[in-house]
Amino acid sequence: SAVISQKPSRDICQRGTSLTIQCQVDSQVTMMFWYRQQPGQSLTLIATANQGSEATYESGFVIDKFPISRPNLTFSTLTVSNMSPEDSSIYLCSVRRETQYFGPGTRLLVL
Amino acid sequence: TQLLEQSPQFLSIQEGENLTVYCNSSSVFSSLQWYRQEPGEGPVLLVTVVTGGEVKKLKRLTFQFGDARKDSSLHITAAQPGDTGLYLCAGVTTDSWGKLQFGAGTQVVVTP
To answer: Which of A43, A93, A95 is best to mutate for the B interface (most B CBs within 10 A)?
Structure first.
């Protein structure tokens, strides 16, 4: 199993600012994933983060907008940069062991 | 991109009734997963189906994978209020990455 925590759990931000979301796993994992879940829509993979290398971004997501750090095997951060109301969403961290585990999510509202 | 469509989007039923949620795609997946997500939480895996035609049961939940591995269904018998939640299907892609492709989800509300 894997226990995943995220900080913050929720935030309200002004447009043009940036927010960094932290993801902590209770044990070492090779691959960590960041997803976005917009209201009424499915979870969309933003990027895959491996320790010691640059994150791999999915189509439609770029490093300048969503920079990711992966300093060790239990921790990762996702930054949502220069935010606009369209970035309002739930951001979820996930890891894969014998199966896929998800964190509780960070609820972001951009005004 | 392999897209998954879930139906219905929303389902409200009385306790004791049965319900079925469908997950359809035009693409083949190596396997398909069902998750349940409750408010304020991340999705939690319920089951993975791998073989075409496979049927798995988890107490009152029955999951079926289509013969062609393109579609799946989730059937809940005698639903209880504790079954309330967002049910998500996710296909595991056939490429080497084995990424998850999620459906939009079905919100199920079971009232006493």
So the answer is: A43
- Check whether the bond before B43 is cis (ω within 30° of 0): no
| Beta strands B10-14; B106-111: pairing state | parallel
Provide the token pair at A72. Answer: 């060790």
Q: pLDDT per residue over A58-72, tens digit each?
A: 999 999 999 999 999
Number of A/B CB contacts below 8 angstroms equals 40
% residues pLDDT > 70 (chain B)? 96
Burial (CB < 10 A; 0-12, 13-18, 19+), residue A89, is: buried
Q: Do B105 and A42 touch (CB under 8 A)?
A: yes
Q: What is the pLDDT of residue A41?
A: 77
CB contact (8 A) between residue B42 and residue A103 = yes
Q: What is d(CA B7, CA A69) in angstroms, rounded to the nearest whole number?
A: 37
Is B1 a residue whose pLDDT tops 60? no
